[in-house]
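Propose amino acids for all 57 sites.
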């Protein structure tokens, strides 16, 4: 369980960094908001955490 949490957190951190860097470079959003990407990262964390349950062991 702890391993799943740690790996989900690390993957989410990478996602958060890439999404914010991409937003800065490409200017996809008219306003730069860390709050929006934090919410996206939270849902991404839940998705990654739950999907790890279905991996083959």
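Proposal:
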């Amino acid at each position: 369980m702890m391993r799943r949490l740690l790996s989900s957190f690390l993957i989410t951190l990478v996602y958060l960094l890439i999404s914010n860097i991409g937003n800065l470079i490409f200017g996809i959003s008219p306003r730069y908001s860390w709050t929006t990407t934090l919410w996206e990262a939270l849902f991404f964390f839940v998705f990654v955490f739950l999907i790890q349950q279905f991996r083959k062991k």
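The two ends are 14 Å apart (CA to CA). The first helix runs from residue 2 to 26.
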